[in-house]
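[[Encoded backbone]]
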Amino acid sequence: MNAADSRRTESHSADTRGLWLMVASAAAFAAMAPFTRRWLRAIEPQSIIAARAVVMTALFFAWGRWRGINLLGHDRRGLLLRGVIGWLSISCYVWSTQHLPSGQAVLLQYSHPVFVALLAPLLLSERPGPGHWPLVLIGLLGLALAIGVGGELERGASIGLLGALFTGIAYVTVRRISATESPITIVFWFALVMLPTSITSCFTPWSLLDMLSGWLNGDAGAGAAISGPSALHLLPQDGGEWIGYLGVVGVGLLGQITLTEGLRRAGAARATAVTMVGPLFGLVFDRLCFSRTPSATVLAGTLLVVAALTVLGILKPRAPADAAPT
């Protein structure tokens, strides 16, 4: 085998490993939902986020120093903005996993490419590819079917959609700052910003997302009646809650690492498309953990979203090798 053949073989092997890492990442992020849904519904969601932020900050600080990466960054305003939007996104996702079936919460979070596809041509002046807008409409139709638009929405679906919107905005922000910043620097700043914001929110005597959900569902009084620390506890109280607490932190960290490494090893478009198996993992976890089988409408909607966003992921411009805000 000559040198050129050897390089092609190594490149193909790295690409294959990268794609498998992306599948592992999708499974890990999807696994956050059943851990939270089963064991952590009485835990303040910002406490879960704060625990994850502590571990992520320490890990990515050590990782960046080991690789000699400038963790202070260059575009600090952009890094700060990405961190705040990422914190808003993960706040909505964790909250939605406490209030929605796991499969639905995961689907909503993974629908963020729809919002990226809507925003990127407007904010980044990206030229849409062939079939771009029809695929966006198909994705929106699939979402409408999956969450029951036109019927009775489950409480929390609006917050899940809001989280997907914030994730989409975060991705657009990352595309702007990735020209000057390392992926590890971007993720480090995300964790660094998430740490004080989540800790501060733990002790806020009301829950903005509870109130917002109540208002969006026409029951503002119910939302306002639920206060953070007075209704939920900050730390696990028994063995089951500790399993869920450590499990969410562990699988979230695994998802972040495998996503960062997967994007580095594989082509960004193909790797991002592979992550669309996430909603399918969500349905599998729903079945295994809660014996919940989706209706034909929900399943059809989920498959429409996955198909449309997979094609969008293949067609979209090269994305930066950053990890998702979850």
In short: Residues 3-12, 222-230 have pLDDT under 50 and may be disordered. The chain has one domain: 35-315. DSSP finds 15 helices and no strands in the chain. The two ends are 42 Å apart (CA to CA).
